[in-house]
Write a structure and sequence with these properties.
globular, 9% helix, mainly beta, 252 residues
């Protein structure tokens, strides 16, 4: 199935049954350098009839959009009902092991390529050394992108807290990195927000945040929702399973 550019300016090529089309205008480097603030995002999702569909799409190069595609680097092991699976090998329909509900079907996987020349002024990647938070937490080293949030278990509290991975940096066992070469990043989405085992650490699945749609124009909201073809409206993301630490508090 081929989708032509819509009125919102989305250039999208999709094909059922796996595999990505590769039109020249949609290469990651070209999209980032288009001068229009856009980049290439790739996603696969589980359709209502059980088939898996894939797409590559140009969309705004904005933090909210990036956050849906930039949590875990290629090679990160995700706990599934069949054992640990590298994030790049996950397929919608697999069952991820959640902390809250046990095995839960994976509905959507998103990915993007982070280029070295995008990151001159910051260090978007975070490397967590093996055993940084205890034996096997993580194991081995874990490389996370700017969209990742990890769970912090609070002693005596009724709820745990989800913190941006950058807030754990200590310069020793959790360090900031600038990529010397392109890095492939991924994120995952379940039917409901949850936390999963990622290389021995507990991290959240994707959620854009409560009320995110109120911060976007109608056109921008339409472009964002187009990245999640299995969803019909913003409310379909549901609620957060745990509270989040705000980024302002994380950098205070």
């Amino acid at each position: 199935m081929v989708y032509t550019p819509s009125a919102t300016g989305l250039d999208r090529v999709a094909r059922s049954g796996g595999g990505f089309a590769d039109p020249a205008p949609l290469t990651p480097r070209n999209a980032v350098r288009m001068g229009l603030g856009r980049r290439v995002y790739e996603m696969s999702w589980l359709r209502r009839d059980g088939a898996v569909e894939t797409a590559r799409q140009s969309a705004p190069n904005l933090p909210l959009f990036q956050s849906a595609f930039s949590a875990f680097a290629r090679g990160t092991l995700i706990a599934t009902s069949s054992g640990p699976v590298a994030v790049e090998d996950l397929t919608p329909g697999m069952r991820l092991l959640t902390e809250e509900r046990g095995p839960s079907p994976l509905l959507w996987v998103g990915s993007m390529t982070l280029l070295p020349d995008e990151t001159r002024d910051d260090a978007p990647l975070t490397r967590i050394m093996a055993d940084a938070f205890g034996i096997g937490r993580p194991m081995p080293d874990l490389l996370a992108g700017p969209g990742a949030r990890l769970m912090q278990r609070l002693s005596g509290a009724t709820e745990n807290l989800l913190r941006p991975v950058q807030s754990f940096r200590d310069g020793t066992s959790v360090i900031a990195l600038r990529p010397p070469s392109p890095v492939r990043l991924y994120h995952v989405l379940l039917h409901r927000h949850a936390t999963i085992n990622v290389g021995g650490l507990i991290a959240e699945t994707f959620h854009p945040g409560p009320g995110f749609e109120a911060t976007l124009s109608y056109e921008m909201r339409a472009q964002f929702m187009a990245l999640f073809p299995h969803l019909r409206r913003p409310a379909d993301f549901g609620s957060l399973v745990h509270p989040r630490q705000t980024r302002d508090a994380a950098h205070a």
